[in-house]
Amino acid sequence: MADASSGVSGSDSSQNAQNAADRAAETAAAQQAAADKAATEAAAAAALNSVQAAPVDLSISPAAISQLSAMTVDTVPSLSSLQTLGGVPTAATYADIAQATATPTTPAVTEYNAWSAGFSITPNDPATVETTPLSAVSINVGLNHVGDINANLEARMGIAPAQVTFAGAVSYTNGVTTYGLSGLAGPFGGIADPNYGITATTATELDFGKLGLSLNVNANADGFTNGTFGANVTTPLSEGWNGFAGVSVSGDRNGVNAVEGMLGANYNANGASLGVSGSGRVDTRTGDVSGGAKFNLGIKF
């Protein structure tokens, strides 16, 4: 007959053996996992610590700086200079360019076709101021224009008596011919009646010299008073010598009253000047003839 207790005892012994095997397997698995983790961490640590950064020297030696300073820089690019550092052969160095300071330039301003104001007192010679009568003193103000056409406007204000005279002129030249026009009006405010005058001139360069023409006309409140027409010619005679001749015709309300002529020569050289001229006048109403000769000598030291 079998013993029941021995059967139970055999079953317990088998169970205990199984439990011991399971615990041993779990322990082995835990140990393996710990070993794997340690191996992984060791590999990672080895990978991080395997590269050691070496220091980099960024300094430039004095010899290199000296060579850079001595290098030339081109300022006029050309195809042949493209192989050189800087591009253009020149005596300038990098050091020269680095030390150079830019100097700003102020653009020149030239006024052209502009008006300018003027002011003066007549007389302006200190030696004659004390002896000049008050009636000869005037204050002059005006405007001047310089450009394609030159012009000026002026007002002359007298003191004793208080009066004002206006004058103006305009001129133009194209390089060969010069034209001029001037006028005078006054005095206004004084005792005498104002007069009005106008003068037109022209001068033209010709093959043999210069030809000049002029016309002057004067008038007052009653109309035309007198006028003069003139013509003159200047021409070179020889080295330093120039000759001139001129004629003028004058008239008034009653017609021509006089004819005048002039002939002469001038010499200029090395600071010395010499002039010889003769003139004559014929009064067309009386037939009287007058004339004279003039001699001038000048020396500059």
Please explain how this structure is put together.
A twelve-stranded antiparallel sheet has the order 1-2-3-4-5-6-7-8-9-10-11-12, with no helix packed on it. A hairpin with a 3-residue loop joins strand 2 (138-146) and strand 3 (150-158). The chain has four helices and twelve strands; from the N terminus they run αααβαβββββββββββ. The longest helix is centred in the first third of the chain and has 46 residues, at 4-49. It is an alpha+beta fold and 301 residues long. The model is unreliable at 1-10 and 78-85 (pLDDT under 50). Among the domains are: 112-201; 206-301. The chain is 22% helix and 46% strand.
Provide a concise account of the structure shown.
The protein is 22% helix and 46% strand.
Shape: rod-shaped
Helix/strand structural class: alpha+beta
Poorly predicted regions? 1-10, 78-85
Question: Major sheet, described briefly?
Answer: 12 strands, antiparallel
Measured between the Cα atoms of the first and last residue, the distance is: 176 Å
Going across the major beta sheet, what is the strand order?
Answer: 1-2-3-4-5-6-7-8-9-10-11-12
Rounded to an integer in angstroms, the radius of gyration calculated over CA atoms is 57 Å
**Portion of residues in helices?**
10-25%
Mean pLDDT: 80
Hey, roughly how much beta strand do the residues contain? Answer: over 45%
Number of strands: 12
Order of helical and strand elements? HHHEHEEEEEEEEEEE
Number of helices: 4
